[in-house]
Amino acid sequence: MTDGEHNPLKLDGKAAAAAIKQDLSERVEHLKNQGIEPGLGTILVGDDVGSRKYVAGKHKDCAEVGIASIAVELPGTASQQEIIDAVERLNADPKCTGYIVQLPLPKGIDANAVIAHVDPAKDADGMHPANLGELVTHIDGRNPAPRPCTPRGIITLLKHYGIDLNGKDVCVIGRGITVGRTIGLMLTAKDVNATVTLCHTGTTDIRQHLKRADVIVAAVGRAGFVKPEDIKPGAVLVDVGVSRVYDEEAGRYRVRGDIDKACHALSSAYTPNPGGVGPMTRAMLLANVVEMAERKLD
Question: Do 63 and 33 contact (CB within 8 A), yes or no?
Answer without folding.
Answer: no
